[in-house]
Structure formats: structure tokens, C-alpha cells
Amino acid sequence: MNITLKELITSFTKSIDLYNYLLKNHHRRTAIAAFHIGVEMGLSADRLSDLIIAASLHDIGALTISERDSLIQMDVENPFPHSSLGSYMLSSFSPFEKISRIIFYHHWHYDLDNTYVLELGPVPLEAYILHVADRTDILVQPDCSILAQKQQIITKMESYNGTVFHPEVMAAYLTQAHKDSFWLDIDNWEMEKILKLGISRRYEIDLTLDLLEEFALTLSKIIDSRSKFAIAHSFGVSQVAYAIAARMGYSEEECRKIRVAGLLHDLGKIAVATEIIEKKERLSEAERADIRTHAYFTNLILGHISGLEGIVEWASGHHENHDGSGYPLNLVNDSISQEMDIIAYADIFTALSEDRPYRKGMSTDRIIQILQDEFLTKHGEPVYQVILNHLDELGSICKVSVQDGIARFHCYQNLADTQEQLIKERVNR
Ligand SMILES: [Fe+2]
Ligand SMILES: [Fe+2]
Ligand SMILES: [Fe+2]
């Protein structure tokens, strides 16, 4: 593939905050502070890059506006939901194994040292660094000169030395924080610069299809986690799309690319407020219009990554209809590729078989009836025929993969709950 892992991570890290004004600057500023502390502590290039990537994504698990608001208070009441969810989202991508762990522990108090769940492993030093960097940025008042606040922030941070914050990290922090440049860098460096400085050569390898699939799975978790009722939707779509493509005679490599498109099809929902995605009541016209933007944003976020063109086109074309009534491009007949139809059918097929709060998942007979009545004219005959010929097989592939995805999510949630419980017991002792 025509792209390095470093390029992919850089573009992902930049785009993830694109539509998120509250976290955008916080992620950037925290990464800069973490970088300076990490350099002061003499971290190796690889450890430093894990720290920088973790810092630039660390609050990715904070989904709602109220949760994001709560994180910008000095004492976060319950940091667990967002740190464990963020960690879960990134856990499928093997180069991010350590990063996922750093994020899990990024609000960890130093005096809780050994209270961790064994499966998750001990608290990495980078997590303690991230915590200091994170809280430093929280203490900065945006409407007043950063240098005028410097001493006050340092004094406040020092009052937590040895309890909340790791003493060795604090020693490095204090050396850095006494320089004006530390604070001015936080205010002025661009994300681009910090990623360029921070990400090591280890990430300068060509992206393989294996890595791309892992990465797409990570992105799909970021999307699916925003809706409790569809926690494995993209995963289900990807497996169904793969199975349809295989039965249509596509090569193994093409099938895998179609599977990636399935994982990415709703990525643009990142640009839509979670409050709208999660809303149970009937959506207003404006809210429906907001949801419709997601197909456009999938393309905007990934469209500039060279080497991904085909996949991005199939993913962002899943709401195009042959009669021209779809979006975002209002494509018609011949300009809609068969791969787009595969993703479109896989999306509807999976959605109809999933349980929703207001209805149970549908039987395959009912699904094929709906596909025939409502979607055949929109997405064409060839893919429909394949689904019809392999109906039961596709039905069970869909059910099994959605259940697998849900089980993986719950397994991670259980770990996080055990961890939360251990800490509560320790604090109350
Ligand atoms: Fe956080
Ligand atoms: Fe944060
Ligand atoms: Fe969609």
C-alpha cells in the first residue's frame, strides 16, 4: 500500500479532533506538555512516540458534551468510563497496544500504585506523565496570559506531588515548567509539529493490508461505541459484506478491502453529535439532516489518504441509490459501483437483524421481504440475488459476528468494572 503507518496515524490523529472543539486544543496542548516532560526524563524515541500518540488521543472515549465538560474540572469525579472506553477503542490495533494501556491509566493516582487488574498489566510510567501534562492544561485559564498564570499552576500541581502525581515525573515537570518556553510552546505549537517531532522511525513502515484491517477495526469501535444499541454494527456489516463479496467471486484481497470499507462506512458519524445518534425520540428534520452528513464526512476524513481511494469511495457511497435519491452525491445507476451496493445491502441486512430497544432482530424471511420491497430499486438486482441465494448462511454470519463484537465489548467493560471496584475498595480502606 502506498502509505506509511506514520502518515496514517498522523492523518487519523488530526482528523479525530476535527469536529470536536472542546477536545481539539486540549489534546494538542496535552501532547506538547507531555513531550517536554518525556524528553526531560530521557525516554527513548519509541516510548516518547507512544506517549505523544496517547496524549493526542487520550480523551477519545469521552463521547458526550457533558462528559467532556466534566473532564475539564481539576478533580474528575469518575474518570473510568472515558479512560476504559478510549482504551478499548484503540486496543485492536497492534502497534497501539501500549498506547491503549497508557490511556486506560491516564487518570491514575500515584498512591494507588499496585491496585491494578492483572490482565491489564502495571501502570506504565507514560501514563503518569500524561496525567501531569493533562492536569496542567486543565489548570490554564484560556482568557488570560499563560505566563501570568505559570507560578500559580506550578504551586497547585506541587500540592499533589507524591499523592496524585508520580514524584519522578513531577521532578522533570518542575524543571521544564520553570521555563517560559514550556508554556509558550503549549500555546503555540501546531499538532502537525508535535507529531512530526514525536513519532519515531518505528512507525515509518509501509502499511500492510493486515495493519489496515486492524486499524479500520479500531476506527469502527470508535464509531460503534457511540451507540449502545449498535455496539458491533460496523463489525457485523464488514463480515456480511465480505461474505457477499466472496460469494460473488471477488478475489481474497478484494474481499478484504470490501471488509475494510464495511468497517469504515459510518466513520463520518464522528462529526455528528452523540446526543443525536443516541436520541430515542423521533428526530427533527434538522437532526435527520445532521445524520445524513456522515457519508460525506467519511469521505472528507479519509479521502486524502493516497492508496485508500477505492475503499473510501465504497464506504462513503453506502447511502447512494440507483434512482438518484441517495446522498451525498446523488449518484445514479452506472456511477454506483457494485462494491457500494454490497456495503449498502450489508448495512441494511445487519441493521435489520440487530436487536434494537424498540424491536427484536428480524428473521431472514422478514429481512429479504423488506430488501425486496424497499431496497431492490435503490441498490440493484445482482447483490440482492446473491443474498437471496445464500440467505440463511448470511443470516448466521451476521448474527455470530454481531454477538462476537458485543461479547468483546462486554469483556472489556468487565475488566474496567473490576478495576473501578478495586480502586473503590482501596480508597475506602
Ligand atoms: Fe481524561
Ligand atoms: Fe484530558
Ligand atoms: Fe450510514
Explain this structure to me?
There is one protein chain. With 429 residues, the chain is mainly α. The chain folds into 2 domains: 5-206, Orthogonal Bundle (Hypothetical protein af1432); 209-411, Hypothetical protein af1432, CATH 1.10.3210. 65% of the residues lie in helices and 0% in strands. α5 (80-90) packs antiparallel against α6 (97-104) and α19 packs antiparallel against α20. The relative contact order is 0.11. Residues 265-266, 294, 318-319 line the site of one fe (ii) ion.
Note the main sheet: none
Q: What are the secondary-structure elements, in order, as H or E?
A: HHHHHHHHHHHHHHHHHHHHH
Low-confidence stretches: none
CATH architecture type of the largest domain: Orthogonal Bundle
Oligomer: single chain
CATH topology of the largest domain: Hypothetical protein af1432
**What Rg is obtained from the alpha carbons, in whole angstroms?**
23 Å
Number of domains: 2
